[in-house]
């Protein structure tokens, strides 16, 4: 796992934000999104841009040792992608 495993553990099923992110990228969520984007689905492309923005922000805040903001980005990213995974 990673060092974010306990960040924003506010999901009723005890799934952490990083676990949700891991499930999305390791499962069919990201693959399906890429397939739709390749078919010029504007919604999928916009979602991919939003995910990229959140990941870039997460990296920035971790690099600047701003763990509070990094945790917030994890929560935001997890909330964006949670509908695309089966928990």
Task: Report strand %.
Answer: under 5%
Report the helical percentage: 55-70%
Integer average pLDDT: 85
| Major sheet description | none
How far the N terminus sits from the C terminus, by CA atoms, comes to 18 Å
Number of helices: 4
E-strand count: 0
What multimeric state do the chains show? single chain
H-E string:
HHHH
Low-pLDDT stretches are 1-12
Radius of gyration: 13 Å
Q: Topology of this protein?
A:
Elements lengths: L16 H10 L1 H11 L3 H22 L3 H15 L6
Write out key terms for the chains shown.
67% helix, mainly alpha, globular, 4 helices, 87 residues
Question: Any overview of this molecule?
Answer:
The chain has 4 helices and no strands. The chain has 87 residues and is an all-alpha fold. The chain has a domain of 52 residues. Helix 1 packs across helix 2 and helix 3 packs antiparallel against helix 4. It starts with 16 loop residues before the first helix and ends in a 6-residue tail after the last helix.
């Amino acid at each position: 796992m990673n060092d974010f495993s306990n960040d924003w553990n506010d999901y009723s099923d005890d799934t952490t934000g990083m676990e949700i992110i891991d499930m999305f990228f390791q499962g069919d969520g990201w693959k399906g999104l890429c397939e739709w984007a390749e078919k010029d689905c504007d919604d999928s492309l916009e979602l991919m841009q939003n995910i990229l923005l959140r990941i870039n922000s997460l990296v920035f805040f971790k690099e600047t040792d701003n763990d509070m903001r990094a945790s917030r980005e994890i929560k935001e990213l997890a909330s964006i992608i949670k509908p695309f995974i089966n928990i």
